Amino acid sequence: MDVQVAALLPEIIFHILLLLPVDSLFRSKSVCRDWNDVLNTCCVNDLLLVNPMSKTSIHYPLIVDDFARLVGSANDLLCIVQREGISIYNPTTRICNRVYGGFVAPVRHYQGAYGFGYVSYTDDYKVVAVCKSNNKVKVYSLKTGIWKKVSDFPDANLLQDGLFLNGCIHWLDYLPNNLPKIVSFDLLKEIYSQITHPRYDECEKRLDLGVLGDRLCVLSSYVEKALTDIWVMDGDDSWTN
C-alpha cells in the first residue's frame, strides 16, 4: 500500500530529511509549508547534529572579539566563549546555539576556565564554567537549557581550559615548584576525581595536557635539555613515556 508523504508524522519526515546532505536539507524548507514548519520547530540538538554529508567551509556567525576563544569540541560541535556569552556551534550546518550566564562577564578573561563535552548516557552536551577566583562551578545542559551550580572546584591553579575525554573534563593544575595534579570532572555524575601524575624529572619544566588518540597525555618540556617527553596514560592511572 502506498503511503502519502502528507500522511507521515512530522517526526518521521524530520528524520528522513536528516539523511539529506546539508545543502539539500536547507533547500527542502522551500518544498512546502509543512516541511518548512518541521525544520523550523525541530529540536535544536538534532539540527546541531546534522550528519555532514557534503563539505562546507567553516563560517562562524559571530563577530570575534579579543575575548573569544575555543574552549572545547565534541562530535564536531564547537564551544566558543565570547564577551557576550557562550556559543555551541555546528560549522557544517552553521547553526549556532547561544548560551548566556555562567562566568563570562564580568569575570575577566583569565579568571574563568571552561570545559565542553558530551554525555552519551543522557544524549546531552554540557558546558562547565569554573570561576578561578573563588572555585565556584556552574554546569550548563544543552538539552534543558539551564545552568546549575555544582560543588566547588578543588583548590587548584588552572592555566588552561579543560580537555574532554571519555565522559570527563580534565584540567591540569600546575605551578612551578609545586606538585602537579590532574583534576577530572565526570559530566554524568558531576563529581570530581584526581589522576596520578607521571614521575617527571626534577629539573625546570613546562607541562601541557593533551589527548593522543583515545588516551590522555602530558607533554613535559624541559628548558635546560631542549627536550620534550610525551607521557601517555594507560589503564589504572599508569603512564608510559
From TrEMBL:
InterPro entries: F-box-assoc_dom_typ1, F-box-assoc_interact_dom, F-box-like_dom_sf, F-box_dom, Gal_Oxase/kelch_b-propeller, SCF_F-box_component
Keyword terms, alphabetized: Signal
Domain of life: Eukaryota
Keyword Coiled coil: no
Domain annotation F-box associated beta-propeller type: ranges: 76-234
Stated name of the protein: F-box associated interaction domain-containing protein
Domain F-box: 10-44
Pfam families: F-box (PF00646), FBA_1 (PF07734)
Signal sequence extent: 1-24
NCBIfam families cross-referenced by the UniProt entry: F_box_assoc_1
